């Protein structure tokens, strides 16, 4: 570990706080810094400004932090478990399962079930996504309980994801244009759909999941040297693998359900953390990954708000523009890939 790691952590915390504040003050609506600050700490005197700052930008910034923490932590877990630098939070097909749930929902618009679905309002997509992600999670956990080889689990998880994506494609061919547009919009990703009413539902699985990761630091460090070494230290490989997969899948599935699929964050951030601090020790890499994930999501959210023809860029596209070059860098750096 580098000697100046404490200074790096302080710098990262400062950058996250600065990015969070900047995210509150950034948007397509012309709101001055003075008005935004007044709305945040009291009242700006304009009900519309107060509504935008308190009930849209503030929960959106919180969602960005939660998504960044969740996806980057899940990516770190997957890369450590499978010892694959390109493994990400969606490698087990949970995100594809969430997409399958939303795609199935789009077909209900012309059925007798639609009145019930429409009564759920904005929660309909969230419930459908959680159900789809839960189905894939159930399959993965069932496989992990029976198979000893982690690589086989990785391959099967990818297969589950491909099957779910294939079914989604078939469903899209049957969907009407209006329903298809709703689904495609969901795939763009959005941090602004989580209101304060929905926030507890987002945080309920995420906070315990991230907290449990800190209790896995020692097992994760053991897995860095391979499962055989970890087993020789007395680690229960099957149980640890089951816990890691469950945490990563639940956290990823929850975030995907509320924000839509967000790519690349979980793959690139763990590599940034290792390179920045010059260590693979999870005692350092894990908190660094959480901070960097939050920072990246906040920065991407700020960039997505840049006024372009009065539109907001899809967050999934912005993270891809950041992440894709980094994936190329990872591949080039590891020639053996």
Structure in words:
It is globular and about 65 Å long. The chain has a single domain, classed as Orthogonal Bundle (ABC transporter involved in vitamin B12 uptake, BtuC). It is an all-alpha fold and 337 residues long. Helix 6 (123-144) runs antiparallel to helix 7. The model has no long low-confidence stretch (mean pLDDT 83). It contains 15 helices and no strands.
At CATH's second level, what is the architecture?
Answer: Orthogonal Bundle
Question: Any idea of the CATH topology?
Answer: ABC transporter involved in vitamin B12 uptake, BtuC
Largest sheet: none
Terminus-to-terminus distance: 26 Å
What is the residue-mean pLDDT, rounded to a whole number?
A: 83
Unreliable runs, pLDDT <50, ≥5 residues?
A: none
What would CATH call the class?
A: Mainly Alpha
Cα radius of gyration in angstroms: 20 Å
* Number of helical segments with 4 or more residues: 15
Structural class, from secondary structure content? Answer: mainly alpha
Classify the beta-strand content into a percent band.
under 5%
Oligomeric grouping of the chains = single chain
* Overall body shape: globular
> How many individual domains?
1
Helix content: over 70%
Order of helices and strands: HHHHHHHHHHHHHHH
What's the total number of strands? 0
What's the name of the CATH homologous superfamily? ABC transporter involved in vitamin B12 uptake, BtuC
């Amino acid at each position: 570990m580098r000697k100046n790691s404490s200074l790096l952590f302080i710098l990262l915390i400062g950058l996250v706080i600065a990015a969070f504040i900047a995210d509150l003050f950034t948007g397509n609506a012309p709101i001055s810094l003075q008005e935004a600050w007044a709305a945040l700490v009291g009242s700006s005197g304009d009900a519309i400004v107060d509504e935008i700052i308190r009930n849209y930008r503030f929960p959106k910034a919180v969602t960005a932090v939660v998504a960044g923490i969740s996806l980057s932590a899940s990516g770190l877990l997957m890369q450590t478990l499978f010892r694959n630098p390109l493994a990400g939070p969606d490698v087990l097909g949970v995100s594809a399962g969430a997409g399958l749930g939303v795609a199935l929902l789009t077909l209900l618009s012309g059925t007798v079930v639609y009145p019930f679905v429409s009564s759920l309002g904005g929660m309909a997509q969230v419930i459908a996504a959680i159900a789809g992600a839960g189905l894939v999670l159930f399959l993965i956990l069932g496989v992990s309980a029976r198979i000893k080889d982690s690589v086989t689990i990785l391959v099967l998880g990818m297969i589950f994801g491909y099957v779910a994506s294939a079914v989604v494609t078939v469903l899209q061919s049957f969907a009407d244009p209006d329903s298809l547009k709703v689904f495609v919009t969901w795939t763009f990703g959005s941090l602004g759909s989580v209101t304060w009413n929905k926030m507890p539902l987002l945080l309920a699985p995420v906070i315990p999941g991230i907290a449990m990761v800190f209790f896995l630091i020692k097992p994760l460090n053991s897995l860095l040297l391979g499962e055989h070494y970890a087993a020789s230290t007395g680690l229960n490989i099957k149980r640890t693998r089951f816990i890691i997969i469950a945490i990563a899948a639940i956290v990823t599935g929850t975030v995907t359900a509320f924000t839509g699929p967000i790519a690349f964050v979980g793959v690139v951030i763990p590599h940034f953390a290792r390179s920045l601090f010059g260590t693979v020790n999870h005692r350092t890499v894990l908190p660094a990954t959480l901070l960097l994930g939050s920072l990246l999501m906040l920065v991407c959210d700020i960039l997505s708000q840049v006024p372009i023809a009065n539109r907001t860029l899809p967050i999934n596209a912005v993270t891809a523009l950041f992440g894709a070059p980094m994936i190329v860098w990872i591949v080039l750096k590891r020639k053996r890939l």
